[in-house]
Design brief:
about 200 residues, alpha+beta, two-stranded antiparallel ribbon, globular
Length: about 200
């Protein structure tokens, strides 16, 4: 299978910006010198990738986020020093490209700082032709996959709740993910709910 990666010539100059919209927001796993809230136009965050590895297995897939066509996505842009560029790209490829469900692309992102500059950032966009592309699933279907998903990086439920927590820490909401998080909280066994205050 052809690996979808950027030509080295486009990646070898200066500091590297990386756009995080899922687990990269709360667990980047690489050294960076700056992180800035950012917005990418043209793709949106969606639970549209069956996870066969990190949060599920081929027999019991989980569901993870991808950037899918249309709309916009708020996330975090990380600036990596030029000296760490090559190591960071290697790390991201080993983490994000285990099954090649993502295309590694460079995208314009708007940094939500002063002076609101635009930078070119590496991002991972879902490959709609890949067997793991789930497309648009109902909330009930999303809930079912997330409840069953467990892979080498842990259970799928924690992935969704950690992402929602990170989104809230950035000061915004993702309606679909927040709705799913509410459903996941309701599905918790009773003994895991904190006792009511009073």
């Amino acid at each position: 299978m052809r690996t979808k990666i950027q030509p080295e010539a486009e990646l070898s100059k200066g500091d590297l910006w990386v756009f995080g919209y899922g687990s990269l927001m709360w667990r980047p796993g690489f050294e960076f010198i700056e992180q800035v809230p950012a917005r990418l136009i043209g793709e949106h965050r969606a639970l549209c990738v069956y996870s066969f590895d990190h949060r599920g297995t081929p027999e019991k897939p989980g569901l993870v986020l991808g950037l899918d066509r249309g709309g916009a996505c708020r996330g975090v842009a990380f600036r990596v020093a030029a000296s760490r560029r090559s190591d960071t790209i290697d790390y991201l490829r080993s983490r994000e490209q285990t099954t090649n469900v993502y295309r590694e692309v460079m995208r314009s992102v708007w940094l939500e700082n002063e002076p609101r500059q635009r930078v070119s950032a590496m991002a991972y966009v879902v490959d709609r032709g890949h067997v793991q592309y789930a497309g648009r699933l109902s909330l009930a279907e999303q809930l079912r996959y997330v409840q069953q998903g467990h892979g080498r990086s842990g259970n799928n439920r924690d992935y969704v709740l950690s992402t929602v927590k990170s989104i809230e820490a950035q000061g915004f909401r993702d309606q679909q993910l927040h709705q799913l998080a509410l459903m996941l909280h309701k599905e918790m066994p009773r003994h895991l709910h904190p006792p009511p205050e009073g």
